[in-house]
Design brief:
Distance between the termini: 21 Å
Strand content: under 5%
Radius of gyration: 22 Å
Order of helices and strands: HHHHHHHHHHHHH
């Protein structure tokens, strides 16, 4: 987790100043951050509880199935983007190459790049606001991250100033563990209503959406956070990095590859940092080790980010980014599934191992 955290920090340092390829706005999808951030973090909390009580064979099966499905959907998306980009190049030439599937507006065609477009004052205000980084989204996910981290450390009795001891399995334990659910369900409903109203206002004023923009209808603002919550549960339960599920998930929702990957990296910075902090306070990770692996992860991320972005800028292609993601998921499917089954075999060989669900307190000792 420390290595992932270091990589996420560097990726965000590089990605935050970058701009969307099809509209005059930041590359990070702050609408995704605002409505899905709390849902993903809350889902991860529930997933960790499920991981603690689940038998190894069940986790091994679920891990194999989930990664196989993610690999397949990502490979299919890479092929679709490749076909789209190839057709665009053949029909329109070099100038018409796309950086995402579908064939939407080119950067020069979207009116957010123009200072002289004819539009209402309200529409101009909307476009002007979209040019900036969204402080509300950043504050929302930061507050959720702080709250989730404190709850996790309180439950593990490792807060620097622990107000009370939490006995595993007791009423206090479950109240502390599950309190994020109603709070973030309420906040997600509020955020969804705000985004649906903003979407309806855009439509009413004749806003022209760019390639890969999310359509935040009343139905989608309920469905997408729920799917993000499930993705968080899955990542927490299977003990895998959230980015392995979020990037394919955002692509399936229609986000273009560059936005999908930059937004995923933004999320991963919060999820990995929360886990790293907990491991340090629990004494399971030494601070100097964490700093070292954080540095190593940052160096690797800087190299990969710079090289891949240079290739995208040079060839104006994005399909290979998704293809690389699919290849990494494929490799991870075999390696992580293999390790999961090896761990399960060791547990079976251990005396007193149960093939059914375990007691949560037994799992945490």
């Amino acid at each position: 987790k420390a290595t992932i955290f270091g990589g996420a920090i560097i990726n965000n340092i590089i990605n935050i100043p970058r701009r969307h390829p099809f509209a005059n706005r930041p590359l990070i999808g702050y609408d995704l951050v605002y409505i899905m951030g709390p849902a993903i973090l809350t889902g991860a909390v529930i997933g960790v509880l499920f991981n603690g009580i689940s038998p190894g064979w069940l986790l091994g099966v679920l891990l194999t199935v989930v990664l196989a499905y993610s690999t397949w959907t990502t490979a299919r998306k890479a092929w679709d983007i490749y076909v789209s980009e190839s057709k665009a190049e053949a029909s329109e030439g070099e100038r018409q190459r796309l950086l995402a599937s579908g064939g939407g507006a080119l950067p020069g065609q979207h009116y957010s790049f123009s200072r002289d477009f004819a539009a209402s004052d309200r529409l101009k205000d909307i476009l002007e606001a979209e040019k900036q980084h969204d402080p509300v989204a950043i504050l929302a996910v930061s507050a959720a991250w702080i709250f989730i981290t404190i709850i996790a450390m309180l439950k593990a009795n490792c807060l620097p100033f622990q107000p009370f001891q939490v006995a595993c399995g007791g009423l206090t334990y479950w109240l502390v563990a599950l309190i994020p659910l109603p709070l973030f369900a309420w906040s997600t409903v509020v955020a969804g209503n705000q985004m649906a109203e903003a979407h309806e206002e855009k439509v009413a004023w004749g806003y022209r959406f760019s390639e890969g923009d999310m359509q935040w209808t009343r139905f989608n603002v309920r469905l997408y956070p729920f799917l993000a919550f499930v993705a968080g549960i899955t990542a927490g339960a299977l003990g895998i990095a959230a980015g392995m599920l979020l990037a394919p998930f955002f692509l399936e929702l229609g986000a273009i590859p560059l936005v999908s990957m930059s937004t995923t990296s933004f999320f991963v910075m919060f999820t990995s940092s929360s886990t790293t902090i907990q491991y340090i306070f629990l004494g399971q990770l030494k601070l100097d080790y964490a700093c070292f692996f954080c540095f190593v992860g940052g160096i690797g991320a800087a190299f990969g980010n710079i090289v891949l972005n240079a290739i995208v800028d040079r060839y104006k292609r994005a399909w290979f980014l998704v293809a690389i993601m699919s290849l990494l998921l494929f490799i991870s499917m075999f390696l992580m599934s293999w390790m999961a089954w090896i761990d399960y075999a060791h547990e079976v060989a251990a005396a007193g191992y149960s093939f059914g669900f375990r007691d949560i307190c037994e799992a945490e000792t």
